[in-house]
């Protein structure tokens, strides 16, 4: 059943807690309902609003927001130690991770406690603690708004990169994801060699599925503010990639600067949070907005802020990093 909301308040539908209104919001559960929306003349200007965890509203939205409300997880195939799991787009991402851990399935445990829905996971190619969701995505089911038909896109055709996918580029505004199928494993494949994860996992008794999940959750809770208590969208900025020569020059000036391998040959990934901290912006407060004092990648709504105030702060952070290091850091959050 399609649910229609006119002049819909957005404050409870975005993790920043920013006030705003949408001219119309349509909730749908099934793919045939979504097809009905587009085959019936289309919704006009539209945008997909999942859990509202990676978006900043800077004003009212004059078009139609499409909200996938279908939830559900089921096994669709098993072969050897591989298990294919299909999840509806409206399923909370961490609900899927918790389910996989209970079922003894490896592959997404390092992505525990990432806010948002399953439908948003391939768009951002979410990642944490040395893992990215692209490693487990078998296929993505989507409505092509060009043809008004359902299409299944194999994972290898999704154009995945660091926080990138075809859904952010060639298919932006042309596809609505309705479900994702993941290929998980019954064979233990612990990956705990990133950041504090090895130490925290060992403290809990070793790299079991449950211990890795608990370790990730504990680390994230210690560093990231709860959106229910202080509005935020998690990491606001992406880690930049630069030429190896640039990274080497910066390391010569800042020997303690963290660097990581990048997918592109001849490129190095830098730690945006470290640079924001060294640029003097960690813990910075500007009226009703601020940079979190425990995680410099996170911008927070301290109460009653507008989207414009958050965006102004983001630009101030970018400027500070540019002036200190000569490096551009891009925003990861979608601005609407």
List the helices and strands and how they pair.
Blueprint: E1 3-9, E2 21-28, H1 31-39, E3 46-48, E4 55-56, E5 61-68, E6 73-79, E7 82-88, H2 93-102, H3 121-124, E8 127-128, E9 131-132, E10 137-144, E11 149-154, E12 175-185, H4 197-203, H5 209-223, E13 231-235, E14 241-243, H6 244-253, E15 259-261, E16 267-270, H7 272-278, E17 285-286, E18 289-291, E19 298-301, H8 307-325, E20 334-335
Parallel strand pairs: 2-5, 3-5, 4-20
Antiparallel strand pairs: 1-2, 6-7, 7-12, 8-9, 10-11, 10-12, 13-19, 14-16, 15-16, 17-18, 18-19
Helix pairs in contact: 4-5
Short summary:
24% of the residues lie in helices and 29% in strands.
Strand adjacency order, main sheet: 6-7-12-10-11
Low-confidence stretches: none
CATH-scheme architecture of the largest domain: 2-Layer Sandwich
Total count of strands: 20
Rg measurement, Å: 20 Å
Order of helices and strands: EEHEEEEEHHEEEEEHHEEHEEHEEEHE
């Amino acid at each position: 059943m399609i649910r229609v909301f006119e002049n819909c308040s957005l404050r409870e539908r975005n993790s920043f807690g920013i006030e705003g209104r949408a001219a119309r919001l349509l909730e749908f559960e099934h793919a045939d309902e979504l097809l009905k929306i587009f085959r019936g003349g289309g919704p006009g200007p539209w945008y997909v609003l999942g859990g509202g965890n990676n978006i900043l509203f800077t004003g009212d939205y004059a078009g139609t927001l499409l909200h996938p409300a279908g939830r559900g997880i089921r096994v669709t195939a098993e072969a050897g130690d591989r298990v294919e799991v299909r999840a509806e787009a409206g399923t909370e991402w961490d609900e899927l991770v918790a389910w996989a851990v209970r079922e003894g399935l490896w592959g997404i445990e390092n992505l525990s406690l990432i806010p948002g829905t399953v439908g948003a996971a391939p768009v951002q190619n979410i990642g944490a603690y040395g893992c990215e969701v692209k490693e487990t995505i078998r296929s993505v089911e989507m409505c092509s708004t060009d043809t008004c038909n359902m299409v299944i896109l194999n994972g290898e055709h999704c154009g995945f990169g660091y926080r990138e996918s075809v859904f952010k580029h060639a298919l932006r505004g042309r596809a609505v994801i309705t479900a994702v199928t993941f290929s998980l494993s019954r064979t233990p494949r612990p990956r705990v060699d990133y950041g504090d994860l090895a130490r925290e996992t060992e403290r809990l008794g070793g790299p079991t599925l449950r211990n890795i999940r608990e370790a990730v959750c504990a680390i994230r809770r210690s560093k990231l503010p709860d959106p229910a208590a202080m509005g935020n969208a998690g990491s606001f900025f992406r880690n930049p990639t630069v030429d190896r020569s640039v990274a080497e020059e910066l390391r010569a000036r800042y020997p303690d600067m963290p660097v990581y391998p990048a997918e592109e040959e001849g490129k190095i990934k830098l730690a945006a949070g470290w640079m924001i901290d060294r640029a003097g912006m960690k813990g910075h407060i500007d009226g009703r907005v601020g940079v979190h004092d425990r995680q410099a990648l996170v911008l927070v709504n301290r109460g009653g802020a507008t989207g414009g105030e958050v965006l102004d702060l983001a630009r101030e952070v970018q400027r500070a990093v540019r002036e200190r290091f000569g490096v551009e850091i891009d925003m990861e959050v979608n601005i609407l």
